[in-house]
Amino acid sequence: MNNLWFALLRIAVPVILIIIAFQFNTWAGWGLLVVYVLVTVYMSRSRWYAARGNMEYTKGNKELALQYFRKAAADPNASSQMICSLGYLLLTQGHWEEAEETIKKARKKAKDRQDVLNAELNLSLVLWKKGEHQEAIELLQKLDNEYKNTVVYGNLGYFLVLDGRLEEALAYNLEAYDFNSGSKSILDNLAQTYYLMEEYNKAKEIYGKLMTMDSTIAETYYYYGLTLLALNEKEKAVEILKKAMEYEVSLISPITKEDIREKLEQVSAS
C-alpha cells in the first residue's frame, strides 16, 4: 500500500506542478512538461532495454537479448527482477561466475518477498550448474521452510531426483503433488521418480496426465518413452521418443538431445 501511494504521488505531484505552471505562464507550463517527459523517459530506459531484451530472447536472438539486458541491469534504476533476468540469461549461456555475481546483486537489491524468492531460486540453479549440488539443495530446503509454492516444490523435487535421493524425492514429490496436482513440473518430478524406482505403472499413470498438458520439455517424453519400453509398449515408446526430439532439454538436465537420438535409433532398430 505504501508503494502504491508513493507511485501515485510521483505522478500526481509533477502533474499538479505543470497545471499550476500553465496557469501562471504558458511557456513555463510547456517547459516544465518537456522536462517532465524527458526525465520520465530517462528514468524508464532500463525498462525499455529489458523489454527489447525480452523481445529478442523470444525470437531466439540470445546474444542480442544479452546485450539489452546488460544495459538494463547497468542502469541505476534497474529493478531486482531485471538484474535477475540478466543473471538467468548468463546462466543459460554458460557464464556461471558472472551469473552468480549478477544474481547476488539482484538479491541485495530485492525490495519484496517475491524478488528475494526469484533471486534465490535462480541462485540455486547457478550452484547446481557449478556442481555445488548439496549447497543448491540446502538453499532450496531453506526456501521450502519459508515459502510454500509450486516453483520451490518443482525445483527442489527435481534436484532430489537428479541427486539420486529417490526415497526422499518420492516423499517430497508426493507432498508437492498434494500441494498442486496440476503443475507440470511437479507431475514430471513424480513420474520420473516412479520410473527410476521401477514403479512403471505408476509412472505411466502420471505421464498420462502430463500428456494432456502439452509439455514442451524433452525429458518428459524421453522418460515416458523409457517407461513404455519397460512395459513392453515399443510402438508407443517410439512415437513418444520421436516427440522428445521436437523439444529442448531443460537447463539442468543431465540428458542431452544426443542421448534421446541414440535411444530412439536403438529402439527403432531392435
Walk me through the topology.
Layout: H1 2-24, H2 26-43, H3 45-58, H4 62-74, H5 80-92, H6 96-109, H7 113-129, H8 133-146, H9 150-162, H10 166-179, H11 184-196, H12 200-211, H13 218-230, H14 234-244, H15 257-269
Transmembrane segments: 7-24, 30-50
Keywords: Membrane, TPR repeat, Transmembrane, Transmembrane helix
Pfam family, one: TPR_8
Provide an overview of this structure.
- This protein is mainly alpha-helical.
- It folds into three domains: 43 residues; 104 residues, Serine Threonine Protein Phosphatase 5, Tetratricopeptide repeat; 123 residues, Serine Threonine Protein Phosphatase 5, Tetratricopeptide repeat.
- The chain is built from 15 helices and no strands.
- The N terminus is likely disordered.
- It comes from Marinicrinis lubricantis.
